[in-house]
Amino acid sequence: NQQAKKKKYLTKSKKVTKGRKEYSAKGRKANAAKEKAATTKAINVKNETAVSARAVGAGDRFFLTDLTDKGKKKLNEMERERNKKEDRATKLSDKLRDQLRKLGRDV
Predict the structure, then answer these.
(1) DSSP label of 17
(2) Which of 17, 26, 51, 84 gives 20 to 30 Å between its CA and that of 7?
């Protein structure tokens, strides 16, 4: 009989499964939570477009047309940026050559 009493005390109370588990933030904390969620969402969208651009560039086939379109746009954007940087470099070297020619040095 005493063993039955010991077992009775050893059983843990059950967790409540119904109802809200936590309270939503109010005021300043609510605004901070919204900003954090918005930031996370923006980062996820950026990562998604970068990944889809890599996949489209690698020649993989997508069945999700919205991701394919995002990937193609991002690829074009990345190509434009790369070309800008390369053009700047060549323009700079051309400028330096012109300046050296003006100074009388043959390049």
Answers:
(1) -
(2) 17
> Are the CB atoms for 62 and 71 separated by under 8 Å?
yes
Count other C-beta atoms under 10 Å from residue 61's C-beta.
7
Tokens representing 98 are 């012109």
Q: What is the pTM of this model?
A: 0.41
- Whether residue 26 contacts residue 32, with contact meaning beta carbons closer than 8 Å, is answered with no
3-state secondary structure 72-104: HHHHHHHHHHHHHHHHHHHHHHHHHHHHHHHHC
- According to DSSP, residue 28 is labeled H
Banded pLDDT at 55 (limits 50, 70, 90): confident
Return the ∠ at Cα 45 (arms to 43 and 50), rounded to 5°: 95
Query: Which has the closest alpha carbon to 51: 39, 62, 40, 35?
Result: 62
